[in-house]
Amino acid sequence: MNKYLFKRPEGLYFEPGDFYLDPKRVVQKAVITHGHADHAIAGNKSVWCTAATKSIMRLRYPRMVSTEFTVPAYGEPFYFNEVKVTLLPAGHILGSAQVIIEYGGVKYCYTGDFKLREDASCERFQVEPCDVLITETTFADPLYAHPPEQDELSKLEAYEKTNIVIGAYNLGKSQRITKLLTDRFPHRRVMVHPEATGFHKIYEQMGIKLGNWQPYSYQLFRRTTGNILIAPPRALSTYYREAGVITAFATGWKKSPFRAHFNFHLSDHADWQEILDLIRDTGARTIVAVHGDGTLLKSHLSKEFPDIEVIN
Ligand SMILES: [Zn+2]
Question: Nearest Cα to 218, choosing from 163, 169, 168, 260?
């Protein structure tokens, strides 16, 4: 892929520093961008990540005891041999980081999962000029333009007196929605499923105020109206057929694998325009597409910016 950067079965490998980025198999040295399970596996010998990601991993993997953590602050460099590495905010979930790698006069940026738009539940993305941009391409398709979040919240106004269940993944999405709901609908009761509350507590310990939410109460939810419950997506099927309950699935995808009355369009990944904006703003001349399909991005850039090399 590059003189120094390789896709190995274990994951992305930066040879001069002998470390992996978000490895999928256990390795000696791993730099981990954020706490989602497809990026942060248990069992690596040494891990470099943000303090929030460490707390998330500790909660997710309570039996993980042998891993040695180093938790640099955003912007605080650390070294693997001659390789300088810095973590910067990626705007995806709390503690998510881009990995800036500097070696041999070349600056690399691995975005991990990211979004550019504002999200009050996590640190905002910080653009860093670089030569090689290794970007996620989850929504690298012009069909994807995420709507403003307030427009999606407006969909809930039609159900003021109804109980609503919003299916949202437990880490990141669930906390973001909690914050959005408690800000926009302070008069409604916002309940959170027990699978997510541990992550809520980490967010609040790290200084993110999620507002006036409360743990799910079966009795209260059934006996009163106008409540909003945030639950794991698989719980939607339980509520879908219940009288007096409206269900919504929080997703950035146009098609939903879960049955719900409507989709609540919300994504923690960059859409097509955000990916193009990032490429422009970093000034990178080499783009490496990972975590998704970079085919459309490659054909677009080769027409519009023929001097940019795209490795898919
Ligand atoms: Zn993620």
Answer: 163
